[in-house]
Amino acid sequence: MAPALRLLLAFLAIGSCIAVDHVDIWPMPQSANHGTQRLYVSKDLVLSTAGSNYADDRAILKDAFQRTMDLLKLNHAADGAEPSSYVLKGVNVVVRSPEDELNFGVDESYNMSILTVGEPLHAQIEAQTVYGALNALQTFSQLCYFDFTSRLIELNSAPWMITDAPRFPYRGLLIDTARHYLPLSTIKGVIDAMSYSKLNVLHWHIVDEQSFPIEIPSYPKLWNGSYSYSERYTMSDAIDIVRYAEKRGVNVLAEIDVPGHALSWGVGYPLLWPSDSCKEPLDVSNNFTFTVIDGILSDFSKVFKFKLVHLGGDEVNTSCWTATPHIKEWLRDNHMNVSDAYRYFVLRTQKIAISHGYDVVNWEETFNHFGEKLDRKTVVHNWLGGDVAPKVVAAGLRCIVSNQDNWYLDHLDATWEGFYMNEPLEGIDDPEQQRLVIGGEVCMWGEQIDASDIEQTIWPRAAAAAGQY
Amino acid sequence: MAPALRLLLAFLAIGSCIAVDHVDIWPMPQSANHGTQRLYVSKDLVLSTAGSNYADDRAILKDAFQRTMDLLKLNHAADGAEPSSYVLKGVNVVVRSPEDELNFGVDESYNMSILTVGEPLHAQIEAQTVYGALNALQTFSQLCYFDFTSRLIELNSAPWMITDAPRFPYRGLLIDTARHYLPLSTIKGVIDAMSYSKLNVLHWHIVDEQSFPIEIPSYPKLWNGSYSYSERYTMSDAIDIVRYAEKRGVNVLAEIDVPGHALSWGVGYPLLWPSDSCKEPLDVSNNFTFTVIDGILSDFSKVFKFKLVHLGGDEVNTSCWTATPHIKEWLRDNHMNVSDAYRYFVLRTQKIAISHGYDVVNWEETFNHFGEKLDRKTVVHNWLGGDVAPKVVAAGLRCIVSNQDNWYLDHLDATWEGFYMNEPLEGIDDPEQQRLVIGGEVCMWGEQIDASDIEQTIWPRAAAAAGQY
Q1: A237: which chain B residues are within 8 Å (Cβ-Cβ)?
Q2: The domain A3-164: what is its CATH number?
């Protein structure tokens, strides 16, 4: 008999299983049934892995369990005397897969049962991958609370039987380190909080018009475009972020936003500017532009192992191209107007990214202008409004939903109710097409926030969107 | 030869000692001389205690050193290759006193030398107590920075010879958990940041009119006056805060603000109110009021070991006393007017606190109304304006300066320049009287802030005031 089935039968046998009535878990699991028994969580709660196929060489599970314990004890000293019965002594985690590569589409499902009989009492977590187990630990932590009478961590309404899996494989949050530099410790704080809501993609909008804070070993002058000497990330810092995120089940999607939103690139390499007086978009006529992009994406591919890379492509004002003689000449020689040149730039850049093993994300303007030309590996990133996702998936491309009216966190007048009610599948009825919506993303653009208020601006609204989990 | 003298001679011998020109240490040490040699801080920097008399049984020093290392590595991965010379290998800390009781007046001075010769290169810290050594480590951390070329932590301008001691023994910051509840983790974050600026007293304005969040074992219904079930501190939580602060050289000054600012007390014990319709100040006529205060201060004395306790005494509106028949009668029977009763209340409460081993702090209204009657152990806490401190010390009492125009952090229009320029000894010329000003305190009243913005509101202005260190 499969362990899960055995547990289910044991659960049903004790007869105290009632339908979900009041469950304070966020996001709500696919299924959660519980009883009425209060349990006490042992101060010395033990992690065990009996029956697991996962060796945990990188301590992903062990560290996640320790973080769970730290979180439970964060705000009160749980020093009450442990009673003699109904004490939860451990968490046993069974992970079926020995692999722990985190990437797009990894299985994040889990089952968790917490019975009121057995010796010792323990929570039983079963998951295909360690990342499903991490989600289970988040759910477990939400069942626990400090009780002021017993002075212990308690867990109400056992037994529990929870079955859960995300609705979408992509559940993103954008941060923007170009408009305001964010220290590593701040980014890590954001990642920690993402894991509480089971968000799984940090979309790192690293560079933009205003600053180029990251080191690119292939082109070491690019970060001359940083705001200051100290407002920079080394590639080792980027690796640190990626590893930190991975250990929490969070992928990192890196973005360079080309050909617009790239003025800062030319501080180190002025040849990337159309001219000294007209600096954006990147010079489409100069092969050097694409050589630099190839260098960046080559360097990225060593660090950002997520299957997707974001190439931007939004808000391209091409007036500098027609205002600059040598580009105007190049357009004429190549029989292109500025629309052709914009398409040429995006498609050439897509090819470079794909040559480095990436699938490509582009903002929706690329689809709106020349959707049929986009590489079939493209994921179109909606932002302007609510009507593009149906068109994207009807065209057979994948889509990420971030319609700004509901899911832009820099819109301070966007309410949590709006975040919560936003439906990524709005207007898409065909199940095949629905599957092409890989998920959604809330966007914390950086013009108006910095390290002092980014977390307060992200939460709790991002958590409301995570209700779509 | 004394170690310090030997070091001084070694320092002078190498001939590279120049006068202070540009030193980025905050607050500025009493004396700091340095040279021009860049050092590299080893990734494996070692703490040693050769010559120390301090056993560090509570790991105060060891943990502080680890925090220093964590801080240095917080925002960049320092993974450059270590050069073969000029590598700082360790910090040797000599603490003369084996004792580590933290309290008012503990010696916080230190000397630190960082030479460019010797094997291995190390920072030498000498201090009377471990708390001086902690201050030295803060200074040390400020000398270090991440260098983007070497990818190492570096320390410029060695050799260094720093001599330092605080100007005032009391360097406070007030937090207010009655107007908004602050989670333990937030309070700990404030304490961490205090230590960076060498502030040494957390004045915990625990309870007030709006809420009574703390557990009082002697009167277990008092925290019925909390905002909610979860917005409470157990006594174990308070002990946790005190221990956490002590390990960072920060004392905790607990306050109950009586007889005004105490409406919330009556939620659990309505007898403390003059009547159900007139609830503040505490009922002066009822012996039970003083029994409760005795219980609170008895419980406090087991947890808050700082020599001082704060009894408030400000903003007492006595109209409820004259509006309540049984109190009006009591006043008449005892031949008191309301001013007499206010004095009676404060003095009786002082006696209770002193009976529990405390010296007493009271807000300045008590001095302004009946200064000559205050116990000689009283420390008068200025807040209204700039002119009371000279009167207090002229009367032979001690004083803490917190004039609201410059040092109230809830005054959002009070600038850091104003914080920086505020002079606690303004108008006091006699050195004997100057010594009675035990220090200053900046006050973060809680009406307008909560956990989401308290740190951003405290800093950097509180650090500007810490320039008075």
Answers
A1: 75-77
A2: 3.30.379.10
